[in-house]
């Protein structure tokens, strides 16, 4: 999408002359640029927004502050894919600066109506006392990619009983009308999600709060999402302010789901089970889902968290998105698998098969910093701990282990390289369910230059983490401690070129 001179001027209006190019040059010097994860050309990326299948392609936007790694004036940046693996730049999606989004085009979602993609988002504004005034806004994208903002906000008032933390509309169709769930904070400083209804996406009526059994669960719920999967109601939410409980809630903020009977949209009652974290790693937040053309429910998350510093900040960029995941439900839990299209990134397979007994063995012929690796452990002794070390060198390693007796999986990034948010610890663990009958366990790792996503046991659990190793840390080894196990592994190098590597000239030149 070509930008007009005026748009370009407005993008740069806070930048000193040459600042954006100067920032881009710093980014180019960074050793931790990803090779197949969606990342910003400069500045900071946060939440995925407006994820939708429209006009034969997947459209995905993300929160973007172009000029640095602070949470500054947020834009929506737009990328497009036909297979959820290869992405093309589509330029700036939403630019802030109108009266209803003067201080940022904050998070929101998309829905197709009348052959156009409707983007519903939060316009953040501040008054002269820097008090926040959120508006819920609408923009419409035509089939040719032109995005036009609706001339005024579609929800202007905050209902009584809520603070100005009122944002992140997620919209879906319900019969002949549309529903939108919005993240909120009650006046008593507890988190909630509220529901609005509309016939045309323009005129909205406040219906009231979603009635869950979590009346006091953190001080704010960000980025709610509701959908139904195989007759089950699923509510995603990002509660802020939970205290750690054992292995749970170890990150600065949480994101997880509630499964229940379908939401009663008339009474807004949602009867559900416990809150379960979507991801057991270090860097995951603000996920958003959409439905693919074949009905598959797809999820993308932000591989980062608010209010933390990351090692790439010094190079003028921060964060990336997770790989898309396909959702299903099994045994009362959400199962997450990497999107099928990712297999299109695979290079030539190398395989490995061995029995290890209290020893470590290198995966000869397989190394690198961008690859997919799947391995299965079988015939394991219940006394042992088994796993993999990757991105290894003399001094660095990232370690994934499975303690067979307890069924505990642990990701350890204590020696992964430059430290990332060390105040929140360097290991994450979870204990798998249904362990008694387990005879084998599969892990699928997606390693990129500065991240890893680990799908455990066919998507029962996922660990997502940024890691910042030296480029020379490329080795892979398997280990068995305190017992023996059989290992079968397959490795596929991933080629560059899945994501845009060139900066869009109309923004950066
Ligand atoms: C979540 C969030 C959203 C908000 C957006 C602003 O990370 O705080 O609640 O809309 O980021 O960038």
From TrEMBL:
Q: Tell me the route in metabolism or biology where this protein functions.
A: Glycan biosynthesis; sucrose metabolism
Catalysed conversion reaction: Hydrolysis of terminal non-reducing beta-D-fructofuranoside residues in beta-D-fructofuranosides
Query: Which part of the chain is the Glycosyl hydrolase family 32 N-terminal domain?
Result: 37-338
- List the CDD domains hit by this protein, alphabetically: GH32_ScrB-like
| EC number from the UniProt entry | 3.2.1.26
Give the UniProt subcellular location, in the record's own words: Cytoplasm
Keywords of the record, alphabetical order, are: Carbohydrate metabolism, Cytoplasm, Glycosidase, Hydrolase
Q: What superkingdom does the record give? A: Bacteria
Chief localisation class? cytoplasm
Q: What InterPro entries does the record tag this protein with? A: ConA-like_dom_sf, GH32_Enzymes, Glyco_hydro_32, Glyco_hydro_32_AS, Glyco_hydro_32_C, Glyco_hydro_32_N, Glyco_hydro_beta-prop_sf, Suc6P_hydrolase
Domain called Glycosyl hydrolase family 32 C-terminal: residue spans: 345-492
In terms of NCBIfam families, this protein maps to: scrB_fam
Q: What does this gene product do?
A: Enables the bacterium to metabolize sucrose as a sole carbon source.
Write down the PANTHER family for this protein, in alphabetical order: BETA-FRUCTOSIDASE (PTHR43101:SF1)
Family affiliation: Belongs to the glycosyl hydrolase 32 family.
Protein name listed in UniProt:
Sucrose-6-phosphate hydrolase
């Amino acid at each position: 999408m070509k930008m007009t001179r005026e748009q370009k001027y407005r993008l740069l209006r806070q930048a000193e002359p040459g600042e954006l190019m100067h920032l881009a040059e710093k980014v180019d010097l960074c050793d931790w640029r990803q090779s197949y994860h969606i990342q910003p050309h400069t500045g900071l990326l946060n939440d995925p927004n407006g994820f939708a299948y429209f006009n034969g392609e997947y459209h995905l936007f993300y929160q973007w502050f172009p000029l640095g790694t602070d949470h500054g004036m947020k834009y929506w940046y737009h990328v497009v894919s036909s297979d959820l693996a290869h992405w093309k730049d589509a330029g700036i999606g939403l630019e802030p600066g109108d009266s209803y989004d003067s201080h940022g085009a904050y998070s929101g979602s998309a829905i197709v109506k009348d052959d156009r993609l409707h983007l519903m988002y939060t316009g953040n504004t501040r008054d002269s006392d820097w008090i926040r005034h959120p508006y819920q806004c609408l923009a419409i994208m035509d089939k040719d990619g032109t995005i036009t903002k609706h001339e005024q906000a579609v929800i202007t008032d905050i209902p009584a009983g809520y603070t100005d933390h009122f944002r992140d509309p997620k919209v879906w169709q319900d019969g002949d009308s549309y529903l939108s769930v919005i993240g909120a904070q009650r006046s008593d400083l507890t988190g909630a999600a509220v529901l609005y209804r509309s016939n045309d996406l323009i005129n909205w009526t406040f219906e009231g709060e979603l009635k869950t059994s979590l009346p006091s669960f953190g001080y704010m719920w960000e980025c709610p999402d509701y959908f139904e999967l195989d007759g089950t109601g699923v509510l995603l939410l990002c509660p802020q302010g939970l205290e750690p409980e054992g292995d749970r809630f170890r990150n600065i903020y949480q994101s997880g789901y509630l499964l229940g009977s379908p939401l009663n949209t008339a009474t807004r009652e949602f009867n559900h089970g416990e809150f379960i974290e979507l991801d057991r790693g270090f860097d995951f937040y603000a996920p958003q889902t959409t439905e693919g053309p074949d009905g598959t429910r797809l999820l993308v998350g932000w591989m980062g968290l608010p209010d933390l510093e990351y090692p790439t900040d010094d190079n003028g960029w921060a964060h990336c998105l997770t790989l898309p995941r396909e959702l299903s439900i099994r045994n009362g839990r959400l199962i997450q698998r990497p999107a099928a299209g990712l297999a299109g990134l695979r290079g030539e397979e190398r395989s490995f098969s061995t029995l290890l007994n209290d020893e470590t063995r290198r995966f000869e012929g397989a190394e690198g910093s961008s690859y997919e690796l799947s391995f299965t452990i079988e015939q394991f002794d219940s006394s042992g701990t088994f796993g993999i070390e990757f991105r290894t060198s003399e001094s660095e390693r990232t370690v994934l282990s499975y303690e067979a007796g307890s069924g505990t999986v642990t990701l350890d990034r204590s020696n992964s390289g430059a430290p990332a948010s060390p105040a929140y610890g360097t290991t994450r663990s979870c204990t798998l369910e249904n362990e008694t009958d387990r005879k084998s366990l599969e892990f699928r790792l997606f390693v990129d230059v500065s991240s890893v996503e680990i799908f455990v046991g066919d998507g029962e659990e996922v660990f997502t983490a940024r890691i910042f190793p030296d480029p020379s840390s490329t080795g892979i080894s398997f280990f068995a401690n305190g017992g023996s196990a059989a290992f079968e592994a397959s490795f596929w190098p991933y080629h560059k070129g899945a994501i845009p590597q060139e900066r869009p000239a109309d923004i950066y030149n």
